[in-house]
Amino acid sequence: MNAPAPPPSPYSSAIGKSNAESHTLSVLVDNEPGVLARVVGLFSARSFNIESLTVAEVAHETHLSRITIATSGTPEVVDQVRHQLERLVPIHSVTDLTLSGRAIERELAMVKVRGKGEQRMEALRLADAFRARVIDATTESFVFEITGASEKIESFINLMLPVGLVEVSRTGVVAIGRGPDGM
Question: DSSP label at 19?
């Protein structure tokens, strides 16, 4: 006799992936060895993708770091991951900045473009339109610095492809809530 099939996992269910949403989690942790590995391990163990990850010490006196994680999933799965993160010992707080609806998200990218003549002029025109700064220039290439929403950076990169895009380096998303309150 066949046993009833268990309910599908929210991590692997095709139904769960159809209504996936992007979420940005802000995690305040002790700045000590192994913390980042434990946080990333929690995602990895559940086959949950991290689309962007940034981390830096934000309180030198208390040795606290802020990890910003951009990910996507169903609201239920993201909420479950958030609760599991809260249970890790070195974590002080976990905030889903997407749910507050009042977060500012930015990213930084450096974009290297090669070109001469008209391609060079087009690269400068596009950079000006996107408010990108030239941070390095040679007779054959530019390196631009651009900050803004991830969509703006994607658009800039896509427009630079036919101009002579050589290389891109991105920081990943950083985010902070609006208003006077902190995490």
Answer: T
Output the pTM of the full model: 0.80
> What tokens were used for 60?
């030198």
Which tokens is 144 given?
Answer: 């631009």
Spatial distance between the Cα atoms of 121 and 98, rounded to a whole number of angstroms: 39
Which residues have a Cβ under 8 Å from the Cβ of 175 and sit 6 or more positions away? Answer: 24, 26, 68, 97, 103, 104, 105, 106
Which structure tokens are listed for 103? 């977060």
Check if the beta carbon of residue 116 is closer than 8 Å to that of residue 44.
no
Which residue type, as a one-letter code, is found at position 85? L
Q: What is the per-residue pLDDT across 98-144, written as a single tens digit (0 to 9) for each? A: 887 789 999 999 999 999 999 999 999 999 999 999 999 999 999 99
